[in-house]
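User: Hey, quick favor. My workstation is busy. Could you predict this chain's structure for me?
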Amino acid sequence: MHLLRSLRLSEARLSPKDPGLSPVLNNLGLLYTSSERFAEAEAIFLRALAIEEAAFGKEHPELANVLSNLGILYVGLGREKEAEVVYRRALEIREAKLGKDHPHVASSLSNLAHLYSRQGRLVDAEPLFLRALAIGEAKLGENHPEVATYCNNLATVYQNLKRLDEAEPLFLRSLQITQATMGRDHPDLTAPLQNLGMLNLHLNRAREAEQYFRHALRISEKYQADHITAGLILQGLAAVQMQIDAWRKNLLAQEVELNRALAKRSVVGETEIGVDAVRAVLSPNSALVEYVRCPNPFGSKDASQVRYYAFVLLPGAAAPRLIDLGDSAPIDKAVIALRAEFTDFQDKLRECETQEEIHDLEKVQEKRFQNTSKGLQSLVFAPVRKILGTTKLVHLAPDGELNRVPFEALVDDDGKYLVEHFQFAYLSCGRDLLRPRTKAAAGTVVFANPDFRLGSTERHELATKLLGDKAPSKVLVASRGTLETRSIGWKALPGAAAEAKDIQTLLDKGEFGPVQAYTAKEALEEVFKAMPAPRVLHLATHGFSVDHDPDAERRAGSGAGWARGQLKQMDNPLLRSGIVLAGANDVGKDKSAKVEDGWVTAEEIALLNLSGTELVVLSACQTGLGDIKNGEGVSGLRWAFLYAGARTLVTSLFEVPDTETRELMKHFYGRLNSEGKLAALHGAQLSLIQSRRAGHGAAHPFFWASFVLVGDAR
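Assistant: No problem, here it is.
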C-alpha cells in the first residue's frame, strides 16, 4: 500500500511528533474510513490531531481538517454526539482564524447541518445550510460545484419539511450546475436526479419522476454504482409505476363516468339505443357509415391481427350491412401517406417565391396527391359506396387512424374528389344522431388574432375592464405541470383579424346577430371563460394537439413553446390539446401573476356551459385532432366542445393557410344565413375548388379540405 510505505519513509526521516507526518496520516485515515477499517482510521486521525496540537496549538486552522474527517468517521459509526463535538470545534477554529465568510467555514457549516439533518433536527440544519450556500455563492461563484452541493443539501431539508415549492428550484439548480460543470453523465448527478425523482413523486408527477430516475439509473449502470444506490433508484422507479397504475385506474373510472354523462346528454332518458331509433332519424338520400378498427376480430387466435370493418345503415334497410375492409396495416399506412402529402406540399410551398411557382407546384403536387388518395379511397370507401345507392349525405363515424382523414379529399376511380359527390358529417358514433335539440342561444361571439405577446399586467387590467364584477378573483387553471420552451412562439394571424370583420359584416344584421368580436389584446382567456353561451362561437386562433410521448426531454424555461415538451409527457389527452389566446407567448415568465395563461386546454373547455350553442367554428390548425382510441373517437377538442353542449363543430385536421382559410370562412358564413351548416361548408369548399381550377389550373386539397363538420349537419 503506497500510503503505508509513504508513512514508513516519513517516520524514518522525521521525528514522531513532526507535523510533516500529519498530511500522510490524514490521507491514510481517509483510506481506512472508505475501506471500513474504522478502528484503525480513528487511531490514525487521533494521532494526526495530537501531532498538530503539539506543533501548532489547539486553535490552528490545520486542526480543522483532521477534526472534520474525524467527524465524518464518527457519523458513519453512529457516534453522533462525538461527531457534533469535533464538527463544532472545527467550525469555531475556522471562523476564528479564517473569517466567518471563508469557503472552509461553509464546509464546516455543511458538515454540522448534515449531522442535524440525520438527527431530524431540520430546523437547526436549515440556517446552517443557508449560510453555507450564501458563502459559497459569494466566494466561489454561483455556478461552482460546491454551490451545487449546498443547493442539494438545503433542498433535501426543505423536502423533509414538506416545503416542496422551495425544494424544487434548489434541486433543479443543483442539477443544472453539475451538468454544466461535470457533463450530463457524471456520477455526481446521481444524488440530485434521485432527489428530483422523489420530489416529483410527492407532487404526483409520475412522468417527470420517471425521467429523473431513469437518468440516474443510466449513470449508475455506466459507472457501476454500489448496490445500495442502484437499489434506491430501482425502488423509485417501482414507486413511479405504482403511481402511474393508480392514476390510470382512477382516470379509467372517471372516463367511464364521463361517458355515461355524455350519453345522458346525447339521448333523452335512459332507454336503450337500437338500430330502429337511429334509422328513424336518417333523412332520405342519407346513410350512416360507422367504421370499427377491431383487434383480435371475432375471437381470432392471432392476438396481433387487427382489421377494419364498416357498418352501413340506410333509411329503408332492415339491418345495417357489415363490410370487412381487411387488415388494418395497409389502411393505416395509406392514411400516413395521405397526410404526408399535405405536409410535403406545405413544405415545398414555403420555398416558392412567385405566384407562378406556386401554380406550377400546385399542379404537380395535386397529381401526386390524387394518386395517393385513390389508394386509400379504394381501401375504405369504394367497398362502402357500392351499397350507398343514391345517398348524398353520409353521417360518418371514423375509427382509429381514419379519424385523421378528410374523406372529402379522397379521389374516386373517375378522378373526382368525394366532396364533388357527397356531403360528410362526422360523428363519434351513430348514437350522436339522437342528441336532442336544445333552445338556441342568441348572437355570435368571435375571438380572433389574439395578441400572443400581451404581458400579464396588461391582461389583468383588460380583464377587469372588460368583465367588471365578472372578472375572476382567483385564477383556476387545470393541472398541466410545468411546461417548457420549444419554439420561437405563436405568430400573429392578420388574416384572422380580417376574418372577424367579414363575420361581423355577414352575420351582424341576420338571424345569427348581433356579433361581438374580441380581437388582439381583448381576446383573453378570462373573457372566453366568462362569456354566456352564444348561438355561434368562432375561434380564429392557433390550436394545438400534442402526441403522447412519455420519454420527451424536459427543459427549464418559459414562453410560447411550452406546449411542445412537457405536454407530450401527460397521459391525459385533454391536457395535450386546446387553443391559445392573448398572452400565450408570455406564459411562465411571471409565475406570481394572477391572470390566466392564455392556454385553454380541452379539459378547461369541457367545463364550459355551451348549452344552446348551435355552432362552434375552430378556425385554427389541427383542432380536430387528439388522441385516437379505437371505438371511442378523438379525445381532444372535438370531445370537449361536444361535452360542453355544442351541437356542431367546424374544425380542422391539419395546418391551414391563413389567406385561404379567410376565403373559405367568408363563403361559409355567406351561405349560413340561407343554408344549413353542412350545406354551407360543402358549398364553400366547392366554390374554392372551382375558383382555384379557374385561376390556377389546379385545386390541391391543402387549400380547401382541412375543415370538417362534426355533429349536427342541419
